[in-house]
């Protein structure tokens, strides 16, 4: 194909979202405040007011009380802080003896927890990517002592939504605690910490149009305790996360959360319509493509598709040269491709999984983006499949 285009279309919101203008404006206002939020003078109180306002805004995203939310530097730190043997409910004296994590979790959960390696168990998923609830029941029944369970609300690679409420009922029946990483789910499916029945939820700003570098831990009630902070020092965030608060990022997080809530219902419908167009376009130009997650609930903004006989990096580079930013089900580092542990856990054929890419939409995606994607697909797939028999697809 060998050409580059000046026009760019961004379809990688699950990696990070472009920042919302409302978040930028909130950050600029916060940037002008001189005070430390821990100071008692007027300047300090003004800074504190910004943080507490943002706490209310972000808590609303999770259907939680503001007093049960604590800010972190991002979703990774939030997950690292929560997943400790010391996580407990008031009245629990012993440390947790086992961590159970689903096999398709984000690496910040799989590798970021603070349990000994021999005290961690992987919860399998079915071929459709949904956790095995019967296996969870069996694992908890065989556990000596108390377990902590971590299951993400929605997968970052496939968009597959997990049955968190059902899992929470099983965990609590066995006396355990459950955490859900809701980083990808926030703003894309309804979130209410009480209705989901989880004890702890973690969030991130940059997935919803906020700044990178801000996250949150949300407890279901004041009875849930970390039992020991990951970041220790001056005792900020009620001792859950010491260090002078990043008021600028926190203000942006709050503004992005408020905009996400305001547009939630209409955005879900709009993004689902765009997603369905993308799927139809892909299957028109690559009829042998395999859509991953069909038949189960998925995020309305996410399309993960595998192309038999093709490598994901080849497809990604072709689209990038043509002006479209996508990502792969694989993690690329230093020129080496690591196969997706998510697709492996789903027992997908390795050669098929090697050709999986992800397209994800967000608040700034438009119909014009989809039209450009359709035109690009014709060029890209005619080249990849060495075909010359396709006709342009009319979108709209």
Number of strands: 17
Q: What is the molecular shape?
A: globular
User: Would you identify the CATH architecture of the largest domain?
Assistant: 3-Layer(aba) Sandwich
Number of domains: 2
Radius of gyration: 22 Å
Q: Tell me about the biggest sheet?
A: 7 strands, mixed
CATH level 1 name of the largest domain: Alpha Beta
- Put simply, the count of helices is 13
Strand content: 15-25%
CATH superfamily of the largest domain: Type I PLP-dependent aspartate aminotransferase-like (Major domain)
Quaternary organization:
single chain
Strand line-up in the sheet with most strands: 2-9-8-7-6-4-5
CATH topology of the largest domain: Aspartate Aminotransferase, domain 2
Would you mind describing this structure in some detail?
The protein has 396 residues and is α/β, with parallel strands linked by helices. The chain has 2 domains: 9-19 and 264-384, Aspartate Aminotransferase, domain 1 (Alpha-Beta Complex); 21-262, Type I PLP-dependent aspartate aminotransferase-like (Major domain) (Aspartate Aminotransferase, domain 2, 3-Layer(aba) Sandwich). 36% of the residues lie in helices and 15% in strands. It contains 13 helices and 17 strands. The protein has helices spanning 21-31, 42-61, 75-82, 107-110, 133-141, 164-173, 193-196, 247-262, 264-285, 312-321, 341-345, 350-353, 367-384; strands at 9-10, 69-72, 88-89, 98-102, 120-123, 147-150, 177-181, 200-204, 215-219, 224-225, 290-291, 302-306, 324-325, 327-328, 331-333, 336-338, 356-360. The strands form 5 sheets. Strands 2-9-8-7-6-4-5 form a 7-stranded mixed β-sheet, sandwiched between helices. The chain has a 4-stranded antiparallel β-sheet with strand order 11-12-17-14. Strands 1-13 form a two-stranded parallel sheet. It is globular. It starts with 8 loop residues before the first strand and ends in a 12-residue tail after the last helix.
